[in-house]
UniProtKB/TrEMBL annotation:
Swiss-Prot/TrEMBL keywords: Endonuclease, Hydrolase, Nuclease
Pfam family, any one: HNH_5
Domain of life: Bacteria
TM annotation in the entry: none
Domain HNH nuclease, chain residue ranges per copy: 91-144
InterPro entries: HNH_5, HNH_nuc, NA-targeting_endonuclease
Record-linked PANTHER family: OS07G0170200 PROTEIN (PTHR33877:SF2), SLL1193 PROTEIN (PTHR33877)
Coiled-coil segments on the chain, per record: none
Gene3D superfamilies recorded: 1.10.30.50
Descriptive protein name: HNH endonuclease
Signal peptide boundaries: none
Length: 191
């Protein structure tokens, strides 16, 4: 049951805009506490009392409860929350790797994730900052070969110039998702 409670659930604000992903555990708390309604495949909203009466189908994930099973909702609609998600992309190792498609920006290889590093194009020892425009994904071999030099000094070429990404809300939500459900598509396309 622990695995079922970690399934991602799409959360919509009161204007039906996708705002985040949460776990099934948190979704049940919001649903039971009447902070949100669950959406079924037809787009109908259900409070906890009506949701628990819905039958569990073969394609549904379910949590065992006294007297049967409770279907895990795929989408929650918050009643009072009307904010929209921020569109700035945080500078993190994960987001850098995603921007560079998990590919070394010097040799073009795609080694396993544990073999990838983050490299400062202008080394920190020379005043290089931690910024989108100065950080790239590099394999261990290329990162060691480059060392404290600039790419020109090391006679290495960047596959592409580093840039600050401008991902949509949809892309940011999918970054955090371990899986994606077809029920999410209409809401993610609108984001």
């Amino acid at each position: 049951m622990g695995d079922v409670l970690t399934i991602p659930v799409l959360v919509l604000n009161r204007h039906f805009e996708a705002v985040q992903l949460t776990t099934a555990r948190r979704a049940f708390v919001l649903l039971y506490g009447d902070a949100a309604h669950a959406l079924d495949d037809d787009g109908e909203t259900h409070a906890f009392d009506t949701w628990r009466m819905l039958p569990v189908r073969a394609q549904d994930d379910a949590v065992p409860i006294v007297g049967g099973h409770l279907r895990v909702p795929r989408i929650l609609h918050l009643h009072r929350y009307d904010r929209t998600p921020r569109l700035t992309v945080r500078l993190t190792r994960r987001n850098l790797m995603f921007r560079d498609a998990h590919q070394c920006q010097y040799c073009g290889k795609r080694p396993p994730l544990r073999e990838l590093n983050i490299d400062h194009v202008l080394p920190r020892s020379r005043g290089g900052m931690d910024s989108w425009e100065n950080l790239v994904t590099a394999c261990r071999v290329c990162n060691l070969r480059k060392g404290w030099k600039t790419p020109d000094e090391a006679n290495m070429r960047l596959a592409r110039r580093p840039f600050r990404p401008k991902w949509s809300t949809c892309a940011q939500l999918l970054l955090g998702a371990s899986s994606r459900y077809k029920e999410w598509d209409p809401f993610l396309k609108a984001s």
